[in-house]
Amino acid sequence: MEFLFTYYFRWHTFIDDIFDKFKVSLGPYKWEELIWKGIQVSSISVKSSLPDSQPNTLHTNWMESDIDLGRGLDIRRGPDNGGPVWASFVNLNHVSFIYNISITNSGQIPFPATIRIFMAPRHSERNRRLNLSNQRKLFFELDKFPHTLKPGKNEITRQSKDSSVTIPFEQSFQQLEKIVKFTDDNIPLAEAVCSCGWPSHLLLPRAKPEGVAYDIYVIVSNGAEDQIKRKGKTELPGQNCKESLSFCGILDDLYPDKRAMGYPWDRILPDGNGNEPLSLSEFVKQIPNSNVVEVKIIHRNETLHRDGGAPVGMELVPDPEKSRPSSPIPSRSRDGTPPRQPVYPPVPNWGSRPTSPEKPDFGSYREDGVNTGGRYRFNFPGRWRLGREVSPDDKDDEGWTHVE
Questions:
Q1: Cα-atom radius of gyration of the chain, to the nearest Å?
Q2: With a threshold of 0.90, does the pTM exceed it?
């Protein structure tokens, strides 16, 4: 998996760059495609559900989750021969939060609107403020939803869990199996699409304990111009299914938005002289139906346990390849009792010398994964792998090289 991830993101960036070149060739948006006269986004704020959280401060943490392997693997186990097999893993999660958006409609009649919410980092990896030409490519969609703007001031609140991009953790194949009664026929497509969407626990990026600054940008567009003409009546998913319209669209129908995916960040943006604005604040000043707010995401280095996993009391089998836990012990148990304390095998003697070719030397490893003993190298982050000793100017058939 580490090998795949190493090349996946490089390839993904390569494809993104090609697509961005095509979008740049289309030229900037016209002002009339961005500005909605009579509509003004007065203010934006977010509030975490943590009682002691400050305004415009969001939080991420670790979450230990359990999944039943019997849904995807033929492990040939049942109630009569050992019971189910569950896998426990730790993933990123965040504390739920609420958007508070204030919008003024200067007209005399209500207008249908589409509210689009995006997020992007404020600073580069060198902690320098990003200009808009670079930040534009880093914006990702948090939510998109319709709303009718009545004349005057509109105070809109929106829960993060209602995002049009994500589906909840529980909306998995395991939950689908409970919803749909399996027969010899195929699963109805309206139910199969239920599992399409971005995982809700990955809505926010991981930050640092001291916090990382991000920009949340909101733009309001004319809902009457955004609507598409539906092809026909589409079978809707069941009542237990949350749709991810921004990520997956509508089953057997057109994408439910006339504007391009990622609008308005999919193309370069104009300023008064036809050039791209230098900063996000300059861009917002020229488009009253949009606004931006700076938020801080703080990572809380704690691990909570997700409810609804493996049965309470089930034995936890330690990973034989690990000598220490890879994440903190959960600070909270699913039933309120002290968390499970896995027993790990003894820590091997990393500095021992080999007594035979069949017992290779682990050497002594630095934190960057390089073997200072000069015999083996660390292949990918997260896993140890042994190779055979080779000469300084030679490589074995798997590409392992000698490290001095």
A1: 26
A2: no
